[in-house]
Amino acid sequence: MEKKKNKKVFLKVVIIGDSGVGKTSLIHRYTSTRFLQDFKPTIGAEFSNKEVVINGKTVVAQIWDTAGQERYQSLGISFYRGADCCGIVFDRSDHSSFENLDTWKNAFLKHGAPKEEGTFPFLVIGNKSDLDDGSLVKERDAQQWCADNGNLEYIETSAKDNTSVEEAFTKLIEKGMEREKVNLVELPDRMSQKNKTVNLQRDVAKDVNRKPQKKKCC
Amino acid sequence: MLQKTINKENFNNSNLPNSGLSTTDKSARNSGLQLQLKQRALQENYRKSIITRKNYSSAHSIDTSLERKPTKKMQLRSQGRSSQIPLRKAKSALSSKPKREVPKRISRMKSAGSNDNSGFTTNNKSLMSQLSFKKVKVSKKMLRESLKTTNQCRKKTDKKKGLHYHLKTNKTALSMSRTYIKKRQYEKVQKYYVSHVSYYQGHRKVRRGYRRSQLHLLNYHLNSEEHGKKKLSDPSPFTNKRVVSPNTVPKGEIMTDSTPGVRSKPIGSVLNISIENIDEESKFELSSEQAKPEETSEEEVDPEGNKERKEIKPLHSFNSPMKQPRNLFCNCPMEEGISYVCTYGYKWIKSCFKNYDFDQNLEAYNALVEISNNKEIVDEATTSQIQKDLVRTFQKIDIFVTDDMKDKLLRVLKALVAYDPYSGYTQGINFITAALVVHCEESVTFWLCTGLFEKYEIRDLYSNQFEGMHTRIDHFKVYLQKYLPQIHAKFEEACFQPEIYMMNWILTFMCSYIPLKWLTKYFDEFFKHGWDSFHAICLSIHDFLQPTILKCEDIGEMKDCVNKMKENRDTITKESHFFKKADIEGSQEPASFFTSTRSSSDFTAFQRTRDEDWEAIFDFYETYIERFGDK
């Protein structure tokens, strides 16, 4: 039993995107297989765990749901750290949210500070595909954007109709696992869980640099 | 002791709102840090109050000016300041007429039809133009300087925070003995706390200045006939009209500072300019809300516009206040002769403002709504954000589903943004307004919100990268450690940080957690006890859930457990059972999900258990409030 437990892989998945594009709905659809009827703006951030078996490995994905309002980005920064993969969501019926993809990606790379900037696993998710009235963001445009930004993968989903939500998250997790293989050694259950807990502190990275100063004060 | 007494005097002189200090001090007392903390805070404040009396511009610049060596810019700045001081003195000598003390904005607005004010304005008219002339020149330098210094100041406070936070995350620290860490943490919290008390003091002043400038803006708009049209063609109506006097300063320069595209810049410029004029102009603001706005404004705002202004009439005449029919949703009893609020609302508004005049404040609110329609003041992005959020606010309660209610809330929220664009709109405020609008009329909701924001410091939660929120969470952690050590230990063991859910609790001010029925009681208590009651309710929820929390195994379970009561709230579908059904025109049928999947018997049973839960929580709450009061 213990051996099995040790094989668990913990992944931190962060979902970002504009306000009201359906981040919470997507995550809710995936983790609890229901469509959230009572919409509420996410304030601060929330997370939910989901255990899945992918390629014979048990993966515990800690999926972080962040707030979309621009103002909350300063809070969100602390959640980006230590992410293994990142999903950027946009609303296909809202073109401005598609145009904001750039800023979201850059903000993540800047504040999340992953080791490999160029190859960090992103997945672009176009949500609300069910609202088909002809004015949706076209797949070609989205693919074009992805190609221009380091050959990212793109997927179209609908949290309402449950089209390829599962698929999207599986892809995300697989990508995260690939990255994990390269970078990290598997840790025992307890340790790895500890490492995966989230630091909500402000400017943790800066504090590390300030170590010597701090000693003086004390 | 000496310092204390001096300090008190200083406070009275500088006439600052020290409510911030008192509330935070109170909570400090509870957590048992009292003596040390108080003394330190007092020392800090003493140091500041001395300096602030010299320099009104910005509190942040003061902070650093002590520790830095004078640079070129600093010298420039001090020169500018020295040019102000004699003028100010001269002015105070001139205004030998008896000054009335008007401590609060509302009472200021209420003091209608005063004669001595108009006399005052004519006497000092020429002086005024001189004053503002010199000041604008200074302010441009000072703006740049103070923006820099604020950043530096922020970094400094961050450093202080960093110390305390770093200790927690530091791996070597974790390997130390647990008790030692706790002790250290406690000390750090104390230090951090002290730094914040003074920080708030400074920050508050800046905002206060800005609020005054807002009233000016209001006055300007009240008196300009062509709303909207004029403003759109004129990129910066307020900076241009109000501060720049006819014979001064190339207008272009100021306007480049406040191009409408960049949001933060114009706010900064308006902010700084207005702060300098506080002393001189606060007198004039007295007249801004008075019965005869045309008379005073002629002399005050801009001599150029005199010809236009004479013909201008105020938006609504104050003699015939518009009385609206009652539009409340609660079943609470009503106060006699007042149709704007129920008894609860009346109590709340009384605790925020001493003399609240419903009719006049309705006028002021209407004017603000008018202003908020200007796209320069409330930009489209904000409006669309608010609209997005209103579709997601309490949508399981039928009174909030109607378009009418959404429009109402939109107006209130936009007016709030127009009232204080420096802070703007943040998600979470929508829940607070929605919770209040049940008991109050639209305009009262607005003013009640401003009261909450200013007197009870809710605005601080959202501003400045959520500084206030982090402070409150830290306070709560101290409380949690003290009153519920078991839960605290459990969280520590699992490395679970209460921030994750506390952020939501604080930023929505518990409005999205507590059911609507119980929110009434919660607000009632909050207006009585202030932030103590917030911490007490948080603690009592934890206390209520303690047995289940202690059983949890991992972080996810803990989080779900703490949010359990909230989910209870979410699953309830007919909250308005306790409230009247919305009977406004144009009300829509609630969405299909609204008619619940639960059967009615299920529903009532569920409701009963939920009410029992919340009764138990409020029982806990009372014991906590008592315990807070003891110490």
Q: Rg of chain B from C-alpha positions?
A: 26 Å
Biggest pleated sheet of chain A: 6 strands, mixed
Low-confidence stretches of chain B: 1-33, 49-71, 76-138, 157-182, 189-210, 224-325, 570-598
Structural class of chain B: mainly alpha
Number of helices of chain B: 31
Distance between the termini of chain B: 22 Å
Class per helix and strand makeup of chain A: alpha/beta
**For the largest interface in this structure, which chains are involved and how many residues does each contribute?**
A-B, 39 and 42 residues
The run of helices and strands of chain A is HEHEEHEHHEHEHHHH
Fraction of residues in H or I helices of chain B:
over 70%
By oligomeric state, this entry counts as heterodimer
If strands are numbered along the chain, what order do they take across the biggest sheet of chain A? 2-3-1-4-5-6
The geometry of chain B reads as: globular
Bin the strand percentage of chain A: 15-25%
**Rg of chain A computed from alpha carbons, rounded to a whole number of angstroms:** 18 Å
- Sheet with the most strands, sense and barrel status of chain B: none
Number of strands of chain A: 6
